[in-house]
Amino acid sequence: MRYYTAGESHGQGLVAIVEDVPAGLKISEEQINVDLARRQAGYGRGGRMKIEHDTVQVISGVRFGRTIGSPVAMLVANRDWANWTDRMAPFGEPPLDLAREVTPRPGHADLVGALKTNTDDCRNILERSSARTTAPRVAAAGIAREFLADLGVEIFSYVTGIGSAVMREDDPFMNPSRYTPLEIETSEVRCPDAEASEAMKREIDRAIKDKDSLGGTFRVIVRGLLPGVGGYAVPAERLTSTIGGALFSIPAIKGVEFGMGFEAARKPGSQVHDPILLDRTKAEFTRASNNAGGLEGGMTTGMPLVVTAAMKPIPTLMQPLQTVDLDTLEVAQASKERSDVCAVPACAVVAEGEVAFAIADAYMRKFGSDNMADIKAAIKAYKQRLNTVSR
Ligand SMILES: Cc1cc2nc3c(=O)[nH]c(=O)nc-3n(C[C@H](O)[C@H](O)[C@H](O)COP(=O)(O)O)c2cc1C
Ligand SMILES: C=C(O[C@@H]1CC(C(=O)O)=C[C@@H](OP(=O)(O)O)[C@H]1O)C(=O)O
């Protein structure tokens, strides 16, 4: 299963096409819209989120609520397009008073993108490098999420830090299931710890006051995974690579850690690797700990997948940094677009979708891809074999 997207931040809308979708998968437009709304929320989001109310329009590949085995095409419209029709028109002449973007923002794609594509207007770059493009990605991920949900796999995320306000957890890798979705989603920063949530909001308030911006960290958890999904033999099939690459494809992601992550590099092996146990009542192998975060040798262990990612601070600053004017080549202040101050809670929702895609694709490689009934039959046979092995 894979997806493609097209669309600019202030164009008519954004399109996603999902390929390799098994037939017979139930799809709920409402559920996709719930995820689109979750992606728009979060303390610290900017004025654009008051304009947009993202909803998905499914254009192909679904009939009476179920996939039919063809690519699924989806559209998320830009409400803001109404304010940009002159400046973003696909055809015709640009307006005479068209303001070009010539003061590239440090930290955004503006300068390097303009150099690369030979333009003197950074708008051509920022329109597509904008994280607005994560809206169709979340819509597309809805297909992967429905696929996994149908197989008993659950994905959620929560924010673990914003700026210097960090949530303390005693053992996040062994027992990441103690937080309920309600606790997470009712927090304005999507953090289940009430005290940490308040500290994070204070941090964002301070950044707004200082005309600054913030990044942070979040964790994605996947439960209900079967062991042995992914691969050790072919580099591209290692889930560490596909999930890591998918997370790094999200704008502003600068770090990814599985389980104990970088901390593992500072500890001896005896304190890192997870002892193997046999649970005789369930006839399955299990682990005494989950420092690996659910992956060994590029494959799922059957323990929860625990992956943490770091997002850098938002590049657009209301007190802009120094840049160079591309027209005059003189010192200038970077452009000051309307902007989010912090988008870590939204980014975590985007990350859930990316992780869902990587895992859905690996499930289909292992269990088939044509239709849900065959996939479920293959999973049942696999579970029976594992059960026999451990008995
Ligand atoms: C959900 C989300 C919202 C974002 N909102 C903004 C924003 O409002 N303003 C901004 O300058 N950057 C924003 N960014 C970050 C930029 O898109 C990102 O830093 C930029 O594309 C450069 O890519 P890089 O950080 O990977 O180098 C956002 C990122 C995400 C994931
Ligand atoms: C539109 C979204 O995010 C945008 C990401 C973004 C950027 O530069 O990445 C800049 C802002 O857009 P605008 O310039 O229109 O205010 C954000 O609002 C969205 O997430 O839906």
From TrEMBL:
Keywords: Amino-acid biosynthesis, Aromatic amino acid biosynthesis, FAD, Flavoprotein, FMN, Lyase, NADP. Pfam families: Chorismate_synt (PF01264). Its cofactor is FMNH2. One of its GO terms (molecular function) is FMN binding. FMN binds at residues 128-130, 297, 312-316, 338. It comes from the Bacteria. Pathway: Metabolic intermediate biosynthesis; chorismate biosynthesis; chorismate from D-erythrose 4-phosphate and phosphoenolpyruvate: step 7/7. NADP(+) binds at residues 39, 45. The keyword Secreted does not apply. One of its GO terms (biological process) is amino acid biosynthetic process. Reduced FMN (FMNH(2)). It catalyses: 5-O-(1-carboxyvinyl)-3-phosphoshikimate = chorismate + phosphate. InterPro entries: Chorismate_synth, Chorismate_synth_AroC_sf. Signal peptide: none annotated. The keyword Amino-acid biosynthesis applies. Its EC number is 4.2.3.5. GO terms for cellular component: cytosol. It is an enzyme of class 4 (lyase). This reaction introduces a second double bond into the aromatic ring system. Belongs to the chorismate synthase family. Homotetramer. This is Chorismate synthase. It comes from Senegalimassilia anaerobia. The lineage of its organism: Bacteria, Bacillati, Actinomycetota, Coriobacteriia, Coriobacteriales. The gene is aroC.
